[in-house]
Amino acid sequence: MTPAAEYADALVIFGISGDLAFKKVFPALENLERRGRLPPRVVGVARGTTRDAVITRMRESLAEHDPATDPEAVQRLEQKLVIVDGDYRDPATFAALRDALGGARRPVHYLAIPPSLFNTVAAQLGASGCAAGARVVVEKPLGRDLSSAQTLNRALRAVFAEDSIFRIDHFLGKEPVQNLLYFRFANSFVEPVWNRNYIDNIQITMAESFGVEGRGRLYEELGAIRDVVQNHLLQVLAVLAMEPPVDMGPASLRDEKTKVLRAVRPADRRDVVRGQYRGYRAEAGVQANSDVETFAALRLDIDSWRWADVPFLVRTGKRMAVTATEVMATFRRPPQRLFEDTPPFRGNYLRFRLGPDRVAIALGARVKAAGEAMSGREIELFACNSQADEMTPYERLLGDALRGDAALFARQDSVEVAWSIVDRMLANGPQAEPYEPGSWGPPSADRLAESAGGWHQPQDDGPCA
């Protein structure tokens, strides 16, 4: 949090009657209120709703998504709640919002609405005076390409200063992702070997065993690369490859991430494999001849002093063998073979499990096998925490926005650099190849990882000890 940042005195939620509010926002609000972190006024804005209807929906949301609620916190939250019923295109809605804010000088406006409405709402906030002293929180997708992201940013910057714009990516609020950042820079043994001299390759896999789950129409506009590579996975890559920041302030942290993304070499066509699971075209809302990818495998190279010639292999897909997000950093093998082991064997590695249900860090090593021969076996030193996050991603991120702490939010320059990387991938990318549900994607993706000894396939580690 910058020294000038002050805690918000009101939270405004546009789209309070929507699905995002039902699934994520209401539980986050209850948790924030339980911790004493909600401001004194919470204003919901939506069309065709009432305060009673919103309270009923909030209670249903908490019963379904957060059953361990605090009744007193829920009661306090309900007492703070004010509803503005109106059309986002109608200036009268924002006049009513100004009245509902009751003189608040530092509101946070959270746009839990479709991106197509961001420009309209931002302009109305500015024209009505509701943007004065305010911050704005916007949800991904932040555009669908570089051009649309720049257009969106111009609309937001016409009303809000850059340091008042919080671009939310719930993935960055997850405990495992923050643990990855902490592990890198809190342990002195990591930094000396975290470079091209010792690392052979780094793989990032985000696999989901389920399909588009009724999101066919939306997914047709996105595809896997726009949906998770542009934001989630490039952010993970940046955390893995960034230089140590001078401090943990938002500016320093985001500067180093952006430097990494600027150093990513434009992907060649042969470095991209796109896939589509069989049966995707039968999903509701999907075109019969759709070429939208539900799988993507990429080889990315970072032209920097630290990472030159180290391949970063990124893979994501739906209807895959497991649901898991995992990072695998494989070390170079010893320069000389001294023992009687039969090659090939896997080199040492650091493995980070980033979800969905655990935080795990594992170190792969070799030890001598019992017996007379000087041969070895592989072992894994495994540390795991399967406890639920103390804070949900939305609770953490909304709380940070209320405090004015932008460290876990994307800055516009990094958004634009990420989109430029993705635009080149999609422009040069081949057609989507079919793959079988329950597999690891199209077989042609295997060639990207040949030099790395093949893809690391995340497995079920079983329950944590």
State the gist of this model.
The protein has 465 residues and is of the alpha/beta class. The protein is built from 11 helices and 15 strands. The longest helix has 26 residues, at 216-241.
Domain unit count: 2
In the sheet with the most strands, the strands line up as: 14-13-12-11-7-10-9-8-15
Query: What's the N-to-C terminus distance?
Result: 37 Å
Shape: globular
**Spatial extent as radius of gyration:** 24 Å
Low-confidence stretches: none
Quaternary structure of the protein = single chain
Biggest beta sheet attributes: 9 strands, mixed
> What class do helices, strands and sheet pairing give?
alpha/beta
List its salient traits.
Rossmann fold; 33% helix; 20% strand; 465 residues; Dihydrodipicolinate Reductase, domain 2; 2 domains; 9-stranded mixed sheet; alpha/beta
Description:
Helix content is 33%, strand content 20%. By secondary structure, it is α/β, with parallel strands linked by helices. It folds into 2 domains: 10-139, Rossmann fold (3-Layer(aba) Sandwich), CATH 3.40.50.720; 172-391 and 411-452, Dihydrodipicolinate Reductase, domain 2 (2-Layer Sandwich). A 9-stranded mixed beta sheet has the order 14-13-12-11-7-10-9-8-15, with helices on one face. Strands 3-2-1-4-5-6 form a 6-stranded parallel beta sheet, sandwiched between helices. The protein starts with 9 loop residues before the first strand and ends in a 30-residue tail after the last strand. The model has no long low-confidence stretch (mean pLDDT 91).
